[in-house]
Amino acid sequence: MRMKKTVSIVGAGNVGEHVASLLLLRNIANVKMFDIPRKTEEKVFEPVKGKALDMKQMLSAMDIDARVEGYTVTPEGEGYEPLEGSDIVVITAGFPRRPGMSREDLLEANIRIISTIADRIKKFAPDAIVIVVTNPVDVMTYVAYKLLGFPKNRVVGMAGVLDSARFKTFISEELMVSPKDIHAYVIGGHGDEMVPLISISNVGGIPLKDLLPKEKLEKIIERTRFGGGEIVNLMGTSAYYAPAAAIVDMVEAFVQNSKRILPCSVYLDGEAGEYYGVQGFCVGVPVKLGSNGVEEVIKVPMIEEEREMWRRSVESVKKTVEVAEAILSEGSARK
Fold first, then answer.
1. Is 18 an annotated catalytic residue?
2. How many Cβ atoms are within 10 Å of 2's Cβ, its own excluded?
């Protein structure tokens, strides 16, 4: 009988808990969740333990044999020992951008969080594949890669799977066809400069550009780029159902060694980096995912218009990486 893999999720907020729930309901892996306590004047709550207990009872109700545990940790990094034995670690922990907070403030706060978590992963789960979800995801994936010191095939950011799902959703609604028959990639940085690849997108083999007029496509692209913001405006908080499903797609590819080709944020250098014009940082491209992590970077063709959008997206990510590098250097100097 094949031993079930263990997925540890650091950060059991909306995204993290939905990742856990989907993994368990689909019986993909056993799950460990880690999060900090919630304190009030009257009491210290441990929601991660409560969520794990609730999920255990859900599994019993549905006759699913899987294991889930919740562990309370401290912001300083205490309590991470149960990471030991993890095959995959998903990092969703981090601050959202708050009113009055600059992009640099957000970067600095989330780099501190990633730094603590990376240190504990190195200590307790040195052989794990790490999926980074914390925003800004391309930069945080780069930070995690640098701090972990793991091979580049074992550190990957979730972005393009979510962006592509949004793109497919809007195409599906416009054409009134199943998203199963839509093949479309969104690559580049996870932000306003993301790059939907219209030239190779198709519906049932028919080129997308032959099915929709240019003005319709432009509206769909615009909605895709600001898909996260649309949800924030409606709910008052960030999306979590679709991000969780995107993460589970990646986890399943690793666990089942399925060789899925999915757009993910990865560290580019060498020949693949030369093809994409990126050397030494992380950005979203199609990759083959299997039991060894990122097994191949796929060199997707782009027309000149897409190449120009790609260059702008890469430049935007690079500028933020440079800010992150300065923060990392300052942190090293303080040590």
1. no
2. 4
